[in-house]
Amino acid sequence: MLVLGQTVNQSASAAESRYGATAPKLAEQQSSVGGPTPTTVAEMWSAWCARCHADDGSGKVKEPTITVEPMDFTECKVTTPEPDADWARAIAKGGPGVGLSPEMPGFEDSLTREQISGFVKHMRGFCKEARWPSGNANFPRPIITEKAFPENEFLLLPVVSHATEPSSASATDVGLVAVYERRIGRRAMYEVGIPFYNWDFQTSRASAIGDLAVAIKYAAYASTTTPRIVSFGLEATLPTGELYKGFGKGTVVFEPFIAAGTMVGDWYVQAHGKVELPVDTLVDRAYLYNVYVGRDTSAAPNTWTLGVELNGENRELWVTPQIRKGLTGTGALAASLGASIPVKYRGERVVSWVGYLLWEFLEPLRARR
Amino acid sequence: MGRLFALGILGTIACAALASAAFAQAGSVTGTITTTAKSLAPVRVTIDQKVCGAELADQAVVVDAQGRLANAVVVLTGVKPFDSLTLAQGKRAAAAEPTITNDKCAFAPRVQIARPNANVKTTSKDPILHTTNAQLENGRTLFNVALPIAGLTITKPIGNAGNVRLSCNTHPWMRGWLVVTADAAVVTGADGRFSIDNVPPGTYELRFWHEALKSAPQRITVAAGKPTDLTVQMK
């Protein structure tokens, strides 16, 4: 319990709640020196946050007392992809808790948990535009399952598999897909991906590029508060692949898909299904589905996240356990590593190492000075 | 059980006897820190004037009319300040748990000594938001805690941080220092005086620290039963 004039024991308060002191509301206490302490969140914002963040949340104050200008909370594009939990953590632990500047002080010993979530709610009001999907549904990206939340990201996805065929020597195949994702407006996103391959070809190694993929995605159902999202998309692969080397489908393929995500307790659940419809009817259709379940090991943006995917394609099925880690304090750079293990047709299919390196290019990589 | 208990009591008595024997032979180091540096012009306050006032003394150099310097730290290396060794009568000694008070938009005291791994308390008397931002010499922030209301006390571990610079991110002129040391150390008072008592006879190094001024370390010899007094100028 925290009462005015008493000492807060750090470890005790940390054990009692995730963030913040469990306390009778400080705001109800009267200050002995000045006037009454602020009581509403808006008053508290003006008294305690506006000195650095400005009354309107823009971060533009007349006489800054800090060297780093905080981000503009009225800019929906920047603020809405942030999950509430990251903001609550920033308020509780201060900037370093989320990889940002230590000029943002920690309030965990002076505010209650309810007050901290009250601030987060208040801050959400700085974005005046409707229909921006809540960052609470901005889950860690699985390796294979398409994410429903629209992103501004650059990705490199390597695939390495090693086959030992009875007839020939062992062979290592390497693939690398480079993907650029960019949000359009509040709910849409486009994506361009190009795969590269390098593999054992007879007695030497050969390289090729595969089919260029372009896609658009639209978050059709996205809550502005809760962690639930459903997106639809259409992907098209163009026959840029070097077919004579065995890469590419040799035809345009249209791939309508659906991607969805929610949270069940502390678990992220993400699902993705798509149909591959080749224009050339001689090429087979394919049905793909992916389901991901995972959870963070801590609340920091650079946490380890453990997850597992089921990846189905027609009759085939793989299971892909994986581990993900934010590489900078803000989590703007992240890497994931997993192994895709065949569940069916195990005699013919091999294990592939899969993963990604991801860069959210609108997020700060690290704290500014 | 009973026997062990008795032994414990005996042990305590023996220790106390030894300690007082050491005291009897101890010497002390006293002195005055002076400077030719002048006090600084006051800081003009433009933020929270209702609480802070329109002007505040710049305490980076606190010097009296005779040139005697306050807030200088004197460290006697080689003497570990055991609990049994009382330090610095009359002057500010190292508190087990120093408290940093935000008072009228200044850190009070401006300069304190903390023991390694001490729990440092920070509190505020002002009804406005202060932050106690503790930075290491390399610029890394050890902690930065918000003190939105008066009367709240927050405790943070200091580790073995060396010289810690305190600042407030809502009142940029505010400055304070924690000198974290396991050695015997004291802060000079307004009269520039310091004294380190109960120092076992021997040769030591005496070091001086001030946030804005410097002075070279000195080698001193402490004899039993009499004070070693010196005057040191910091530039």
Quickly describe the structure.
The complex is a heterodimer of chains A (369) and B (235). Chain A contains 5 helices and 14 strands. In chain A, strand 8 and strand 9 form a beta hairpin.
* Topology pattern of chain B, helix = H, strand = E: HEEHEEEEEEEEEEEEEEEE
Question: What's the pLDDT, averaged over the residues of chain A?
Answer: 88
Q: Count up the helices of chain B.
A: 2
Bin the strand percentage of chain B: 35-45%
| CATH topology type of the largest domain in chain A | Porin
What would you call the shape of chain B? globular
Number of helical segments of chain A? Answer: 5
Task: Calculate the terminal CA-CA distance of chain B, rounded to whole Å.
Answer: 61 Å
Q: Identify the CATH architecture of the largest domain in chain A.
A: Beta Barrel
Overall pLDDT level of chain B: 85
User: How much helix, percentage-wise, in residues of chain A?
Assistant: 10-25%
What are the salient characteristics of this protein?
heterodimer; A: 369 residues; mainly beta; Cytochrome Bc1 Complex, Chain D, domain 2; Porin; 2 domains; 12-stranded antiparallel barrel; elongated; B: 235 residues; Immunoglobulin-like; 4-stranded antiparallel β-sheet; 2 helices; 41% strand; globular
